[in-house]
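Suppose you are handed a protein chain with no further information: no name, no annotation, nothing but its sequence. What can you learn? This example shows the usual starting point.
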Amino acid sequence: MTLPPAVAEFVQTQGWGAVRGLSALGGGCINHALRLETQHGPPVLVKFNYNTPSDLFRCEAEGLAALRTATGGPRVPHVLGVGSGWIVLEFIHSAPAREGFSALLAEQLAALHQKTAAAFGFDSDNYIGSTPQCNRPTADGYQFFADCRLLPLGRQAADRGLIGADDMQGIESVCRRLPGLVPSQPASLIHGDLWAGNLITGPQGEPVLIDPAAHYGWAEAELGMMHLLGGFEAQVFEEYAARRALLPGWRDRLDLYNLYHLLNHVLLFGEGYLGQFRRALSRYR
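A reasonable first move is to predict its three-dimensional structure. Written in structure tokens, the prediction is:
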């Protein structure tokens, strides 16, 4: 795999000298990833994809910058350069998870979620995977979750014939019932796409978050995504609850928040997730 011309031009402007090594990295399902070594510069991670929206990586950079503002929050990679269809990031050397990794992750996530805003959403729209994510600032969390999360993805899935009229009616029913299903919560800064594949370890075995869909939303929704695909020890949730009080019944609401992510999986990966989505929908409609 060769270095994209725009990235090669960026590298040249940095004064890093000649390219000495270029190796493909696995782990992603949407974008290409390379480790780049140069004569004088640091090793860096290059991600690129010219078949996705041109601002996708700019949105990633904005999300990483936002997560970095949370005092005591998890480490995220530094952005070294970004352009249309590409991003250059600090390369994180990974080591085995340190002792107390789960407790540290819980402490840092609790600190991240302590950062709140007056409105749900974000300064700009971004992406969940490669799916556009509406972040229109909204004071009411129920309206935000309905109008900027469930309904847009439901309509996309319906328009593409991936879900039926009954499914869409169920989504609309859940949206109307949200105030009775979800207790009032502040707009917390969240990673937004926190599955185990977006958590790596740093050189000291510390937690590092990557590939955010950052915005201000319900912190419980972050826990829902963590629970959806597994990969997080039970201790993470226990330690989190010890540091940031969770409202009664929070575990019973996780499938509700995950309706959004399951709809996105249906859009991205097809009908394999449809049964799981419908089972979750049936709990709350």
